[in-house]
Amino acid sequence: MRIVENLRLGEKYFFINHYSGLKIYLYPKKNYSTSYAVLGVNYGSINERYKTSSGVVKTPAGTAHYLEHKLFETEESDAFLLFSKTGASANAYTSFDKTAYLFSCNSNLKESLAILIDFVQNPYFTEKGVEKERGIIAQEIKMYQDSPEWVVFVNLLESLYINHPVRTDITGSEKSISEITPEILYDCYNNFYALQNMSLCIAGNFEPKEIFEFIENRIKIDNKNKTEAIFPFEPERVANSFAFKKMEVITPVFNFGFKEPVKEKFINTRSLIISEIILCVLMLKSGAMYNRLLENELINTSDFSCEYFNGPYFASAIFSGESKDPKRTSEIILEETSNLVSKGIEANEFDRAKKSLYAETISVFDSVSSIANTMLDFSFSGRKIFDFLEILPELKLEEVNESLKNKFNSKLSALSVILPAAV
User: Fold this and answer.
1) Sign of the C-alpha dihedral, residues 346, 352, 353, 358?
2) Cys bridge to 38: 102, 125, 143, 264, which one at CB 3.0-4.6 A?
3) Residue-wise pLDDT tens for the chain (423 aa)?
4) Is 228 contained in some domain?
5) Within this chain, do residues 107 and 13 fall inside the same structural domain, yes or no?
6) Of 282, 330, 286, whose CA–CA distance to 307 is shortest?
7) Which pairing describes strands 198-204 and 35-41: parallel, antiparallel, or unpaired?
8) Is residue 234 part of a domain?
9) Angle in degrees, CA 51, 312, 344, rounded to 5
């Protein structure tokens, strides 16, 4: 059990690289009434292809999400029902790069942990159960297809990326899920749900040694080898520069993104922080871009945002919101990002962005769910939850401006728009 401390924050967590391969993160928060636990698998929707001794296996789009749904079903009961008996609130999600099973509770932490660890390690897939779930997931797919915010995002990814599976919807399509069988789910489970491909992160009011001993007694050693997904070559160009769809919206919805060439599997932590600072500078309410968009009444201040969207072999800067003229909005973003690359970030802008990002980072540690989920995110990319607090204060303006030279390539940009159906 290794202790990891941060003197600035005055907090610490305990890390155990268990001999089973499972990585365990225990973050005690005294005087907190709620505990939160998340058991994550380094397996998401982008892991469509993987290599076995028999060759390369290609799975239907949406398989990781389908597996997440079915894993809650046990031979005798349902994991949600078991959690309700301990008073825990349970859930799960599948993202592009991982699957997570989680719960929060005010009491009975051990009992809830036992349920979490047991059902994730004991799959039970039947023809009848898989077929029954098909209709439920088909309805979920339709629900997402009716969401302008989700459709505009997926259409942007389809435009930015040519081969990378991040361009495929997490839930798949009705056609792709019709191909999923219990055999496919078991194959994916046996190849990806190895303890050495998983992390357990817990934050809350508990005694770390006591909780670790309890966890260790529940782990079922699987002796599985970790399976690595195969990713196709991604060209340094975009598939399309523009995509649109008509839906029932009043004001057009847009996503405008810049694709970044990625040579390594993950963006290193320092580069990630630099990218976050650059976006923070662009989004400063006193900044040129924000003010131009506002003065021209092109954005709604309540929903205009940006994010640095990144994961295994992909990275992009994405601006999103509502606009009466998405094309003109994207042109101003292009002009202002180009200006920033040309002139560089000024010292006062840099200081404000650093302070803003530092405050945002500090706020993560006020929530047990934010702590546990961040530890899970970072565990699969080789980062540590205190990294931002250590690196941010020492960053120099010159280093950030040097990084700017490789940002916001207009040839690697794309605009995705949802227009009102009446237009």
Assistant:
1) positive
2) 102
3) 999 999 999 999 999 999 999 999 999 999 999 999 999 999 999 999 999 888 899 999 999 999 999 999 888 889 999 999 999 999 999 999 999 999 999 999 999 999 999 999 999 999 999 999 999 999 999 999 999 999 999 999 999 999 999 999 999 999 999 999 999 999 999 999 999 999 999 999 999 999 999 999 999 988 887 788 899 999 999 999 999 999 999 999 999 999 999 989 999 999 999 999 999 999 998 889 999 999 999 998 889 999 999 999 999 999 999 999 999 999 999 999 999 999 999 999 999 999 999 999 999 999 999 999 999 999 999 999 999 999 999 999 999 999 999 999 999 999 999 999 986
4) no
5) yes
6) 282
7) antiparallel
8) no
9) 155
- Domain presence at residue 369: yes
Determine the angle formed by the axes of helices 63-71 and 182-192, rounding to 10 degrees: 90
Chain-centroid distance of CA 265 in Å reads 15
H or E element in which residue 326 lies: helix 326-343
The three-state (H, E, C) secondary structure of 337-380, written as one string: HHHHHHHCCCHHHHHHHHHHHHHHHHHHHHCHHHHHHHHHHHHH
| Beta-sheet pairing, 242-247 with 413-420 | parallel
- Cα–Cα distance between 105 and 91 in angstroms, integer? 12
In a domain, 231, yes or no: no
Residues 332 and 397 in one domain: yes
Q: Which two tokens stand for residue 96?
A: 């592009």
CATH code at position 313: 3.30.830.10
Tell which residue, 89, 83, 101, has the closest CA to residue 34. 89
Instruction: Please tell me whether residues 63 and 174 are part of one structural domain.
Output: yes
Residue 287: domain span: 242-420
Residue 319 identity = F
Based on the fold, state whether residues 10 and 147 are members of the same structural domain: yes
Give the pair of three-digit tokens for residue 36: 């939160």
Question: Residues near 40 by Cβ (< 8 Å), separated by ≥ 6?
Answer: 98, 99, 100, 101, 198, 199, 200, 201, 376, 379, 380
Does 288 share its domain with 206?
no
List own/partner pairs for 182-185 with CB under 8 A and 24 or more apart. 182/125, 182/126, 182/127, 182/129, 182/130, 184/59, 184/60, 184/63, 185/63, 185/66, 185/67, 185/70, 185/123, 185/125, 185/130
At 246, is the secondary structure helix, strand, or coil? strand
Identify the DSSP state of 394: G
Q: Which of 48, 68, 73, 322 is catalytic?
A: 68
- Specify the number of domains making up the chain: 2
